């Protein structure tokens, strides 16, 4: 499934050739497709390894970023994160950097794997607090560590306004786009964040959270790792049930302005995802629709005085 212009096709034969050329010690291990997101394609290698290949040259910058920073962040976090064990180099067949990581066992967050959503929300808040408190170690918001989600909302307004219009035209019968636009514009009127810049994971959605026995066990996919304001980090809470969302907010003691900016980022990521992937990635569009419906329902509940 091709999602982006300039995407490099990947299949098992290509992955096997990369392993034979650069990782002969693993070249004969069993290899199986392990999923694909918007940025990377993954193959499980044996029982203990994962091959991670970026879809495009732009996404390839994130691979090098993970290779550089994950080993430095991992010892400072209580929860496991991906461990790169091989930094793949470009070849004629695949002209981008790629990685082999340790496989992390666990289940994606979902109704079949989590029973106590408030506990999950508190666990996630504990991870975010740790990550945001880590010293930047000289990292600055530039190049691969600069991403729109760690900045202010204002520079995204023209883009997101266009995406809202796209959504109104394509999914307006499935979604209250007018409410989403009202919430977006209300957040634009808020003061910009003024606190220090911090480490951001950038995409703490359920598919990037692994649980064991219902508790958060590990956080994966640091392709969105960046330095910036923390507001957007909280945007994926609208992918989780209300009890998880409230427990997370309470644990971090987030004020109304921060929370409303976070909600605006949830809107931005959702409507832009629908606009960009509408005809190519229906499963991701469904995720975005679910997030945006949760935003609308949450806003309606707050207006009605629901706890």
UniProtKB/TrEMBL annotation:
Protein name according to UniProt:
Aminoglycoside phosphotransferase family protein
What would you give as a GO molecular function for this chain, any one? transferase activity
What InterPro entries does the record tag this protein with?
Answer: AGP_Transferase, Aminoglycoside_PTrfase, Kinase-like_dom_sf
- Provide the species name: Streptomyces heilongjiangensis
Pfam families of this UniProt entry? APH (PF01636)
Query: How would you classify this enzyme at the top EC level?
Result: transferase
Q: What is its EC number?
A: 2.7.-.-
Q: Which Gene3D superfamilies match?
A: 3.90.1200.10, Phosphorylase Kinase, domain 1 (3.30.200.20)
Say yes or no: keyword Transferase present: yes
Question: Out of the domains of life, which is the source?
Answer: Bacteria
Annotated keywords: Transferase
Query: Ranges for the Aminoglycoside phosphotransferase domain?
Result: 35-265
């Amino acid at each position: 499934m091709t999602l982006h212009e300039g995407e490099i096709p990947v299949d098992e034969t290509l992955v096997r050739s990369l392993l034979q050329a650069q990782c002969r010690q693993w070249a004969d291990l069993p290899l199986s497709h392990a999923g694909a997101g918007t940025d990377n394609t993954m193959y499980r290698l044996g029982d203990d390894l994962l091959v991670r290949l970026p879809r495009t040259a732009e996404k390839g910058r994130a691979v090098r970023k993970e290779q550089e920073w994950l080993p430095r962040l991992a010892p400072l976090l209580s929860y496991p994160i991906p461990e790169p064990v091989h930094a793949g180099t470009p070849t004629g067949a695949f002209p981008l950097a790629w990685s082999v990581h340790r496989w992390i066992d666990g289940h994606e967050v979902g109704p079949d794997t989590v029973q106590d959503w408030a506990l999950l929300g508190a666990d996630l808040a504990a991870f975010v607090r740790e990550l945001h408190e880590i010293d930047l170690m000289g990292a600055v918001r530039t190049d691969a560590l600069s991403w729109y989600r760690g900045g202010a909302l204002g520079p995204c307004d023209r883009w997101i306004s266009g995406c809202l219009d796209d959504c109104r035209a394509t999914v307006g019968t499935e979604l209250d786009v007018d409410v989403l636009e009202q919430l977006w514009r209300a957040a634009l009127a808020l003061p910009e964040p003024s606190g220090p810049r911090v480490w951001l994971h950038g995409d703490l959605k359920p598919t990037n959270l692994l649980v064991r026995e219902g508790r958060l066990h590990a956080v994966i996919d640091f392709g969105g790792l960046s330095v910036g304001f923390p507001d957007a980090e909280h945007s994926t809470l609208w992918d989780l049930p209300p009890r998880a969302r409230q427990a997370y907010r309470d644990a971090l003691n987030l004020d109304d302005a921060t929370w409303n900016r976070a909600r605006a980022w949830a809107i931005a990521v959702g409507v832009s995802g629908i606009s960009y992937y509408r005809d190519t990635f229906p499963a991701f569009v469904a995720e975005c629709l679910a997030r945006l419906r949760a935003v609308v329902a949450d806003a309606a509940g707050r207006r009605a005085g629901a706890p």
